[in-house]
Amino acid sequence: MTRSLFAERDGGPAVAPISPRRELGAYEALWLEDGASFKTIAERFQRDPSALPGDFVSHQEADARAGEVLDILKTAGVHQFGVRIHHAGDYPAKLRDAKYPVEMLYFQGTWELSETRCVAVVGSREATDEGKRRAARLAAELVRKDFTVVSGLATGIDTAAHQAALEQGGRTIAVIGTPLGTYYPRQNRELQDRIANDFLLISQVPVLRYKAQAVPQNRLFFPERNVTMSALTEATIIVEAGNTSGTLTQARAALHQGRKLFILDSCFERTDITWPARFEKEGAIRVRTPDDIWAALG
User: Fold this and answer.
1) Partner residues linked to 171 by β-bridges
2) Which residues contact 245 (CB under 8 A, 6 or more apart)?
């Protein structure tokens, strides 16, 4: 992890070096407060828009929490990673388009991939075989057109998209719903490690909060990562999804953030779901042929 960064406040020049380790610890401490959520933390920073996490937490507590995080990650086999902190370093401005933007995230791999043209390919975990083939064909075509394929490393559509991008020699980014060093699903461990080593793996999940609470509460981190995934990309393509799929969180986020939202025609042809027509009325693009995507992306 970088030893120091310069913080830029209110759009002005760099004013002071900061410690990424201390800011990491402070952000983790904020997540341990009662009732903390992406919404409450974002609202806190909205009230003080130039603040850093360390402005809300004592140095002593921040340093202690940072030490706990580093110990957990080391035990999990994460020996090299980076962070991106709002107001410091290469934090991407496009993340601020989210309704409740994250103030800090973790990553492994090549951060510069996030600065390439990125398109997310997402959909159901319980995908049909045809759905997975469609995801793979789209990912392969995105690679041929020099886009970076982004997805969430879940089973089904996500895995098909990542694997196809790799098979085509392309770039891929995974935005996961667990902390670094945690594998879900476990069968994607090798794929996750390859993306972390050779491409880019991103997690916005606070390590200490994730460890402190039970599985049902931690499931809430998955749809939240879809919001960040949308903000990092210029478009989202939904291949398959049911009426209650977490993928629809990303659809809502994409429209809210002003990103292009593509929905495959096969979704509209299903009689058991209603969301495709609803999102089309709100601005989503119905994809009858791949050219509908390429024409919109330009």
Assistant:
1) none
2) 123, 124
Q: Please, are residues 232 and 147 in contact by the beta-carbon 8 Å criterion?
A: no
**Please, what's the largest Cα pairwise distance for the chain?**
58
DSSP string computed for 93-150: GGGGGSSS--SEEEEEE-GGGGGS-EEEEE--SS--HHHHHHHHHHHHHHHHTTPEEE
Residues 6+ apart with CB under 8 A from 120: 149, 150, 151, 229, 230, 232, 233, 235, 236, 237, 250
| Token pair recorded at residue 57 | 């937490």
CB atoms within 10 A of CB 128: 15
CB atoms within 10 A of CB 272: 6
Q: What is the pLDDT of residues 123-170, one digit of tens each?
A: 999 999 999 999 999 999 999 999 999 999 999 999 999 999 999 999
Residue tagged 């020996």 (tokens): 79
Cα 180 to chain centroid, rounded: 12
CA distance 36 to 26: 13
The two tokens of residue 38 are 């992406």
61-82 burial: b if 16+ Cβ within 10 Å, else e: ebeebbeebbebbeeeebeebe
Encode pLDDT of 173-200 as tens digits: 999 999 999 999 999 999 999 999 999 9
CA–CA gap between residue 197 and residue 109 (Å, rounded): 5
Structure tokens at 19: 């410690």
- Residue 296 confidence (pLDDT): 97
Q: Is the pTM of this model over 0.70?
A: yes
Going from the C-alpha of 48 to that of each of 36, 52, 56, 110, 265, the distances in angstroms are: 17, 9, 10, 31, 44
